[in-house]
Amino acid sequence: MKATQVPEISGAFLFEPTPYADERGFFCRTFDADVVRSVGLDPNAFVQDSVSRSARGVLRGLHLRSGAGEAKLVRCSYGRIFDAVVDLRPDSPTYLGRAFFELSDETQATLYIPAGCAHGFQALTETADTSYRIDRPHDPAEDVTIAFDDPELAVPWPLPATSMSQRDREAPSLAEVLKQQER
Description:
The chain is 10% helix and 40% strand. It is built from three helices and 13 strands, in the order ββββαβββββββββαα.
């Protein structure tokens, strides 16, 4: 497994496993505590695993958490997704930096997203299962959502959004979220 720092987002990493394929299919390690530790992350910090299933065109995000934030590992375990990360940490050297990835079941790559970054994704295949490993128990009172189509962020979503939650559809702009966080 190889870990690569994401230049657009300080502290973000892409973990790329080495799948072993044969006539039966493939096998690969999707999490390796030693590799995670080698880039300065605590592999024991993750306390919750979750999975979502989305149909083609479904858009989820842009989400982040207030307070201490939430670091997470994200992987597309089945299908393909377009994944977007925006650095919203004011003290970060990559503040407002954006990074985009295609995560898929073929590569099984995992993206580490530091706390304080907004995250969203769109399913590119008829079915896409996305797995999350999160470093804090979820508290809905800390949920923050930013408009997926905010022109300041200009995320290049590859497909028209076929479905999204009401919360995502009605999300405020980045400017509104930042103004609320100043209070």
